[in-house]
Specification:
Length: about 350
Amino acid sequence: MQDGPIRGCDDFQALLPDYRAGRLSPPRKLLIEDHLHECVACRNAAEGREAVARTRLAAKPAWRSPWAIAALLAAAAAVSAWFLLRPAGGRITVESLSGAMYKVAQDKVAPVTPGAGVAAGGEVCTGKDSGAVIRLADGSAVEVRERSSFSVSELSGDSTIHLNRGAVIVEAAQHRFGQLRVATPDCSVAAAGAVFGVNAGVKGSRVVVLRGEVRVARGDERKTLQAGEQYATDASMTPVAVRDEIAWSKDLERYVKSLPEPAAVLGHSTRLLALLPAGTAFVASFPNSAGAAGEIRKLVEQQASQSPALREWLRSGRGGDRETSAGIELLQAASAYLGNEI
């Protein structure tokens, strides 16, 4: 059954023992978790609720009396009403704050202080030159950029950050059931145990993945991103180096260390294409690498200070030491008049 087709809830429930034991392949595990998020019956079966209910009814026949059934129905209605009518929101805790943060609720604006807990409902905003790190009820940590506006809600095990504008970097907690989502005006990002950034701007939204895997949904489009990959909702938003996208973070270096090296430092396209005339037949673009050449030169000098053989080889002129140094100095001087690409 592990590798066979899944045709309905019976097949999903047959896989639950292997899911609990961790014996399923990652793709099949993902299917199970998505189905549990959407199907109440299978989620109850996964949590053992139906088995517990059957055991209690078998052990206590008195519960079958009309009064007991009426009391049970009343309790179920009360619980259902609480879930349906409770305020849409989740409690967050402000772990650190630089600058100003405000909560807007019912046309009232109140400042938020470090260490404070912010109750459900309402919009939370960071001011100019401000930033914060908040902790959600599920344990997820979220770093918030300046001039960002968001709210938080919880439903059926899911935590959702509604990012109206600005940027966040999310370290999503692991969820056995449910997941963390970031919803922008034009897309939704879902993950569990991943680290990713979301930027909601005027042109659209951009998602970058720093660690793990996330799923992006935009209308009928579905996209799965791995560490180092990115997605933009508007075609005019050209890819950028991940390091540049999260340069505002106070924890930048820690995030970058977890990335594949090329994804941290390189872009994937050129801005020059939009500036070319329609009749262009051929174009080549490459990064302005003078800074990298200087760094390589420094590494060679460091190695030479520790290696007598390399130092002697450079001094002998066979390594072209003078010519190389002069070439690098000329390249670095010229690069000051160039942009990021040539």
